[in-house]
Amino acid sequence: MKRIVTIQDFSCVGKCSLTSALPVISAAGVEACGIPTALLSNHTGFPTFYSRDLTEELTPIGAQLRRESIGFDAVYTGYIASVRQMELISDFIDEFRGANTLIFVDPVMGDNGRIYSGLSGDYPQHMKKLCQKADILAPNLTEACLLLGKEYNADIPYEEICRMLRELYELCGKYAFITGVKRDDMIGAVGFDGVSFNDCFMIHEDIVCAGTGDILSAAFIGAVMRGAQFSEALDTAVKFTYEAVRLTAADPDRRFYGVQFELALPYYIEQIGKIVENGRV
Ligand code: PXL
Prior knowledge:
This protein is an alpha/beta fold.
């Protein structure tokens, strides 16, 4: 069984980062290990939150895992609470990178054109350095603009998205995709593997839904670990995310703070089954 370690915060309430990445990775049939970068009562999208920084825990946890000769098939980083943490995570990647280890960086920094509260102004330029350690990069449109120093605009034309992807690909070298791209009445993601572009668009449900980027990233890397090509993994992840958003929108009792991905997990498991089946024939 493949093993992923995902490094991001643990928000006790909020359906994001570790609390959503771990169940999605498990649903892919991949061992899900998590290292928390910070412990939050709830994510930063609430008016208030309590946060305990866990920066100083990263190095001893890494050293202990090495002592036990534990390795990973993929290292997946998400929300990182500070620049210092980014430096330590960069060291962790150097330590754990093997010939067949995929490094997946979701440069979680913001959404809807705005950087998340609590992150410093120089955060994007440091994140860009971490992105150079990645094989795969998965920013949303806001994060792609922050990384490339571009003015954000929700309706950036498709040709420009492709130009941005070429630049992002130069940073990581295997595959880059941008999520939250709009096209007519649709929303989806566009990816580039250095040779060709691929995309997947679904109906745009008109609800505010936090945490979609986190489940999309987890679903993508889970599918890759089960043998999906990058384009196939992107398709699977976008459709699963759409299914989760659709089910959230349909629930009159939905929480305001996060996507209800739980009911979409059976759909994801079914798609993973098809990927595995195709790999066998
Ligand atoms: O879903 C992204 C995310 C992850 N972690 C924390 C956040 C957010 C978005 O607001 O606040 C702590």
